[in-house]
User: Fold this.
Amino acid sequence: MADTSPHPRDAVIVQAIRTPLCRARKGGLAQHPPATLLSTVLSGVLLKDPTQPNSDDNFLISPSAIQDICIGNVLSPPTSAVSFRMAALSANIPHTTSLSTTNRQCSSGLQAVANIAHAIRCGSINVGIGAGVESMSANPMHELYEKFPPEVDWDTMQNCENSQEVMDCLIPMGVTSENVAKKYQLDRVTLDTFAAKSHEKAARARSLGKFKSEIIPVGDISEDDGIRPSTTVDKLARLRPVFDKTNGTTTAGNSSQLTDGAAAILLMSREEANKRNIPILAVWKSFAVIGCPPKIMGVGPVYAIPSALEKACLGVEDVDVYEINEAFASQAYYSIETLKLDHAKVNPNGGGIALGHPLGCTGARMIVTLVNEMRRERKRLGVVSMCIGTGMGAAAVLEVEDVRSAL
Assistant:
């Protein structure tokens, strides 16, 4: 059994911030390049109160204390390694701070945070930032394969022993959603009901001001703009299926939105946080990535969540809040039902269907939302999880310790 007691080299979260999430091409961030979004959160995550960036004596930690940064991103071209380094420097983080990028598709933001957390836990660094950014306005998803087709020997791929699974990696994400719905007999009403609930929860959270503490404005843009409070099951029922026009159940309304956004998480060792007298918001407890069949990639959380929980010596019932990405209603609903999760614990403030899914940002954004929700509602244990294109799932477990001590 893993040792779950506090340790000086525990990776702890001391700040977490995001930009608004805005609709690609039509929303408030459409004209801002990814580097601008990234620079905004990299500068904001260093502040005591990121919502008041211009106040005096607001630094939580000096930029010079940051030793490494990892950025999750999916759609930007290879030159993003340059533009993201420029973004860090423009955020007044010195050139002595190193930076890398990572791409594990929809879990890239979570993977970036995991990379920094693991570097802290093994002693490579003491302070770092894990972040994610995506501009689906600047880099449309539908152009990805046109500009960057897979560099493979097609004859080998199509004729190898497991050629079916190999070629399944090319199945469009929406088609994998239809595969999940058909395989597990999920009907249209169930999926539309799930989607409408996502908008209802997100609209309520926004009206109550729940997102204000986690958002740093980009210029004059300070609110998510993809939430539709008037969404109903009846309205969603009018939308036509996109990927199987005759018998399909996946529509634009019960799928995640194409979105622009960025998020950043400041982590350090427990020892460093205590030395600096910086309050610990949450502790990184475990992380898991598990593969699954590419043609039903959306079921990844079904495998990743139990693995991450086992590493943290926890069961499904121990968790207070789950943030599970709603790439599609089909895969999110199936994952929740298969794991027998309490729906009231899952995405209490809405998910990707209402808020959007900026691919490389999502994992980091979900951590921001989860940590804020857990601290606001006095919840101790939380899980972030998502499916991953080509057939994987990722999950991480976080703990808010001062809740435990108060119980």
Summary: DSSP finds 15 helices and ten strands in the chain.
